[in-house]
Amino acid sequence: MALVIEGMGRVGPHGATRNLSSPLWRTERRPHARPVHLFGLHKQPELFAVPARIVDINDAQTVEWQLVENSQRVDVHPYEEAQGFQRLLDMPGYDVATLVEKSGKSPAHVYARLPLLQLIPTIAEAFSAERITASHANLLARLPQEAQANAYEQCWRKDWQDKEPHLLPAKHLRTCSRSSY
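The structure corresponding to this sequence follows.
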């Protein structure tokens, strides 16, 4: 069981000045999964009340709300977004149309993210650590998993004056993948 507290705004000396549309999650495992500092309220000493609506929801609804809200963030990494989409699609009653409706993303966006889950773990980790770009990851994800490691090695080149290999442009990988796979 979880409680969701939806902030309606803040009340300060100048009245209601900010809309807090994101829910503040409270569960037994995470007493404050959406901490106050995310709203910037810790910087508001004049704050003395926040009107809120408390909703009682079950664990499945909590996961759903968290995943949908996470998919609406601006700064989410494409691989994390794909993982969130897949978790929602694994829930009963979810398909791409429902996901599109609840997340506000286009079907093309959802379908473009899901293939990233086909990356082998070493490449997925490199992508999450931003050692390769989204273009590289998308091209590698199209390849069979057996061929991904070899293609990943083709993304890098070390010149005679370089101490470390550098990442080649994704168009180089596109050319190699067409001729090799």
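The two ends are 50 Å apart (CA to CA).
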